From TrEMBL:
Chief subcellular location: cytoplasm
Subcellular localization: Cytoplasm
Ligand binding (pyridoxal 5'-phosphate): L145, T146, F173, P174, S175, D176, D258, H261, Y283, W339, N367
Keywords in alphabetical order: Cytoplasm, Hydrolase, Pyridine nucleotide biosynthesis, Pyridoxal phosphate
UniProt record similarity statement: Belongs to the kynureninase family.
Gene Ontology, cellular component aspect: cytoplasm
Protein name, per record: Kynureninase
Keyword Hydrolase tagged: yes
Pathway entry: Cofactor biosynthesis; NAD(+) biosynthesis; quinolinate from L-kynurenine: step 2/3; Amino-acid degradation; L-kynurenine degradation; L-alanine and anthranilate from L-kynurenine: step 1/1
Enzyme Commission number(s) of this protein: 3.7.1.3
Compositionally biased tracts (Polar residues): 54-66
Region (Disordered): 49-68, 306-329
Length: 511
């Protein structure tokens, strides 16, 4: 089979060998980052008891379980990232501070400790900004993804008699549908105000730039907001954020981005791309832990807090014959407000005068969970060992290798199709594989029995995501061997050929 990807010119026999995968890992300096993470063992995944079995990850701090083949193959960082080894250390520091210092942990910078809880949101701004390509003042770690989308839409979705529609991607994650529809309902508008961009045909699972722009243009005169995913959760398509943002703004439309599957996965330049706002979670490629606190971006032009004359006519308020002053008031973008978004110098005055912090921090509501922030901090410190550009280059090779191996199915045509764009510039780490009908349950069972973790989307899709921070080329090789074996077994099972696998109940196979 011709090889036009990053491994062009390499013979199939060499490309598909374990030796090749090991050599790729050996010459890749970033492969050392794997040691920063706890890789679940196959035994621990099957263990029905809490925690580790003796002799696995709990006792091992080198990144290996001794017998490398006992490590699981974890390609599910697009759902939940693995735990950085330093997370436990950081969380223990937090717990020890709370236990030994109580409320003083808010204010005191202890030797060998973490930043005081009062300042922990500020402490991780710079690292977060580098990952999303923003100014530190444009980002804040707070709340969770859908909550942040609601907070941002409460500020940026301002429907009027001319513009009231919201445009989203038709197959966006359900929570985005719920959030936008509820915002529309909140303004007493009809659900028809929600416009979806759908694939032009069933055979084209992803959206071309031309199609996206044409739908936006069609509804431009009546659209108040466009909200799109940076990377589509199902197909893995990486949207052209810069192009779409520029197009929307040229038509007078505010544009926001759900970056759940993009942050920590692909390089972003939110400031330079002039994005209005964005939100993300920190538990997928960011490895912050299940349900951990999220983050948001507000471009600096929307985060200004300025003193403006309170008198529209700018007529001086004469206080004495010889002295004249102009009364001023604060001008800032409307938003739902809370005390943690108020300027620190006035936050504890309790005078009920809201003075927002300039930038994204002014959108905060309550003090953030110090436990959550500690977990995010541990992951950010791992990201600080490299750059997003370097991770992207490794990811292109890693996912390119996965693609090359998937396309080389031994013994004929594969019983699956890759539905993620073939152009590496239009995808992140994830490849979505559409299995022939009826194979999914059998394939998944075989993968799980052999210590492989991937994400499934009913009825027939596997989402496979080698994360460049901790996955290896050897992981890909081992996965392909097991996956192809699973496919052959599923295809050969009695009752196959479009029907459910042997041993799978009808009720499950029909879902």
């Amino acid at each position: 089979m011709p090889n036009t990807g990053p491994f062009a010119g390499i013979q199939d026999v060499e490309l598909c060998s374990e030796t090749f995968a090991k050599k790729e890992d050996e010459k890749d300096k970033l492969s050392e980052l794997r040691k920063e993470f706890v890789i679940p063992s196959k035994r621990d995944l099957k263990n029905k008891k809490f925690g580790f079995q003796h002799g696995t990850s709990k006792e091992n701090t080198s990144g290996s379980t001794g017998d490398r083949n006992e490590e699981s193959i974890y390609f599910c960082g697009n759902s939940l990232g693995l735990q950085p080894r330093r997370t436990k250390e950081y969380v223990n520091r937090y717990l020890d501070t709370w236990a030994s210092k109580g409320v003083f942990g808010h204010f005191t910078d202890y030797e060998g400790g973490l930043p005081p809880w009062l300042h922990v949101d500020e402490a991780i701004k710079e690292q977060t900004a580098k990952i999303v390509g923003a100014l530190p003042t444009e980002v804040v770690v707070m709340e969770t993804l859908t909550a942040n989308l609601h907070l941002l839409m409460s500020s940026f979705y301002r429907p009027n008699k001319d513009r009231w529609k919201i445009i989203i991607e038709g197959k966006a994650f359900p929570s985005d549908h719920y959030a936008t529809l509820s915002q529309i309902a909140h303004h007493n508008l009809d659900p028809s105000a929600l416009i979806t961009i759908d694939p032009p045909s069933a055979s084209a699972p992803y959206l071309s730039n031309e199609h996206i722009l044409s739908v936006i243009s069609e509804h431009a005169a009546t659209t108040a907001l466009v909200l799109l995913p940076g990377i589509q959760f199902y197909s893995g398509q990486f949207f052209d954020i810069e192009l779409i943002t520029r197009h929307c703004q040229s038509l007078g439309i505010t544009v926001g981005w759900d970056l759940a599957h993009a942050v920590g996965n692909v390089p972003l330049k939110l400031h330079d791309w002039n994005v209005d706002f964005a939100a993300w979670c920190n538990y997928k490629y960011m490895n912050g832990g299940p349900g951990v606190i999220g983050g948001l971006f507000v471009h600096e032009r929307h985060g200004k807090v300025e003193q403006v004359p309170s008198n529209p006519s700018n007529t001086p308020n004469t206080q004495s014959p010889s002295t004249s002053t102009t009364e001023t008031t604060l001008s800032y973008r409307p938003r739902l407000s809370g005390w943690w978004g108020s300027d620190k110098s006035s936050r504890f005055r309790m005078d009920n005068i809201f003075v927002p912090i300039p930038g994204a921090s002014g959108f905060q509501l309550s003090n953030p969970s110090a436990l959550d922030m500690t977990s995010v901090m541990a992951s950010l410190d791992v990201f600080s060992l490299t750059t997003m550009d370097a991770l992207r280059q490794r990811s292109l090779r890693l996912t390119g290798y996965l693609e090359a191996r998937l396309l080389r199915y031994p013994g004929g045509a594969p019983p699956y199709t890759i539905i993620t764009p073939a152009n590496p510039a239009e995808r992140g780490a994830q490849l979505s594989v559409l299995l022939k009908p009826g194979l999914l349950d059998s394939v998944l069972h075989h993968l799980e029995e052999n210590g492989v973790v991937v994400d499934e989307r009913k009825p027939d899709v596997l989402r496979i995501a080698p994360a460049p921070l901790y996955n290896s080329f050897l992981d890909v090789h081992r996965f392909i061997v097991i996956f192809h074996e699973a496919c052959r077994k599923a295809v050969g099972a009695p009752g196959q050929g479009g029907k459910h696998s042997e041993g799978v109940p009808e009720a499950i196979a029909a879902t």
